[in-house]
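Worked example 3 (structure in, sequence out).
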């Protein structure tokens, strides 16, 4: 049991580090805003604190778990407001210049935004919250 949970923890830690790296790459290549990117990186560092040697046993009253819950919601809304503002701004600009220029500014599509949310915002918190029920299906054992 411990070998399996260790390898799962290691896999999640690698995915978390990959998502942090992905944030940095998207900041450089797609010009994502610095403050939102740094906030997301900090959120992922806090999320990864929950995947320690005791995982999947997580204390619901621990600081890292409570902070992870608050940060998951905050991270979602920070990126939601960023993308909604960006989309609204680009649409207003394209409506103003619709008759002046045939070139319209590019607006991120729904699939682009949904993919970003799925991978960069929700993936690790989803693993964290799903792991809370990992021991619900285990058979009770006696320690005597």
């Amino acid at each position: 049991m411990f070998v399996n949970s260790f390898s799962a923890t290691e896999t999640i830690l690698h995915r978390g580090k990959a998502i942090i790296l992905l944030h940095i790459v998207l900041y450089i290549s797609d010009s994502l805003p610095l403050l939102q990117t740094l906030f997301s990186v900090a959120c992922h560092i806090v999320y990864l604190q929950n995947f320690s040697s005791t995982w999947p046993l997580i204390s619901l009253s621990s600081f890292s778990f409570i902070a992870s819950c608050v940060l998951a919601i905050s991270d979602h809304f920070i990126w939601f407001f960023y993308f909604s503002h960006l989309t609204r701004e680009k649409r207003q600009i394209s409506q103003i210049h619709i008759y002046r220029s045939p070139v319209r500014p590019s607006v991120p599509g729904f699939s682009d935004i949904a993919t970003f949310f799925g991978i960069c915002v929700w993936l690790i918190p989803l693993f964290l919250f799903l792991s809370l029920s990992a021991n619900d299906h285990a058979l009770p054992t006696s320690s005597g």
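Notes: The CA atoms of residues 13 and 25 lie 18 Å apart. Residues 63-96 form the longest helix (34 residues).
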